[in-house]
Specification:
By secondary structure, this protein is of the alpha+beta class. It is about 30% helix and about 25% strand. α3 runs parallel beside α4. The protein is globular and about 50 Å long.
């Protein structure tokens, strides 16, 4: 009976409840890769990578600074992440810790991320403390990250027709019937692939087309990072 009870518990445990551990590659202030798995820090929302904040009339790159602060917090240490869910982009939503410090809470407490109230109330107290103490981005005027994304998304939706007119079509020889994954080299020289439905798919000029993600990865491309 004990065996059956234990088996029932294990079978009921969702896949996203896994624990990840290892070194971290920082993507931005609330996203990272742990042992090759994309992780979004649960319950918090940091400025986007290209987002700026305004301090006394001067714009500064608060998105880049948030990523730097997350990188400094982790240092070269191994981190542990407890999965809570999976988002629509397949990323693991997790609460992560390093050297006994909860990263999600520390980023909000230090003022480098906001409490993502749309999904959780876990870090509202920490946000209020950071705001009252004028820490991090709270020294500035800024759009909430979710508002910034909405504005950028609206601009991207309005831009495709104009951009498509100004960009040459992908060479017909690169397209393969039934293959819809677009491979493209971005401005930083990185080889990225875009899946149908992703935010920049419509305006991406394909340099190569692939039939599967495995095929794109074998050719040296990585999946586009979306939020």
């Amino acid at each position: 009976m004990r065996f059956l009870a234990l088996a029932a518990v294990l079978l009921a445990t969702p896949v996203h409840a896994q624990t990840l551990s290892g070194s971290a590659e920082i993507i931005d202030g609330d996203s990272l890769a742990v042992s090759g798995i994309w992780v979004r820090l649960f319950g918090i929302d940091a400025p986007e990578g290209k987002q700026t904040c305004n301090r006394s009339g001067t714009a500064w790159r608060c998105g880049e600074e948030a990523a730097t602060q997350l990188r400094n917090l982790i240092g070269g240490n191994s981190i542990e992440c407890r999965g809570r869910d999976t988002d629509t982009y397949g990323r693991t939503l997790a609460v992560c810790s390093v050297a006994g410090i909860e990263i999600n809470r520390a980023m909000v407490e230090a003022g480098w991320a906001t409490a993502f109230r749309k999904y959780s109330q876990d870090y509202v107290v920490e946000e209020n403390r950071a705001k009252a103490a004028h820490r991090g981005i709270w020294t500035s005027e800024f759009q909430l990250p979710q508002e910034y994304r909405a504005v950028q998304s609206a601009r991207q939706e309005a831009a495709p027709a104009e951009l498509m007119r100004s960009q040459p079509a992908a060479p017909a020889a690169q397209a393969t019937s039934g293959c819809a994954i677009k491979g493209n080299r971005n401005r930083k020289g990185q080889w990225i692939y875009h899946l149908p439905g992703m935010p920049y798919y419509a305006i991406t000029r394909a340099e190569e087309m692939f039939c599967s993600e495995a095929q794109a990865q074998a050719a040296g491309y990585r999946r586009a990072i979306v939020r």
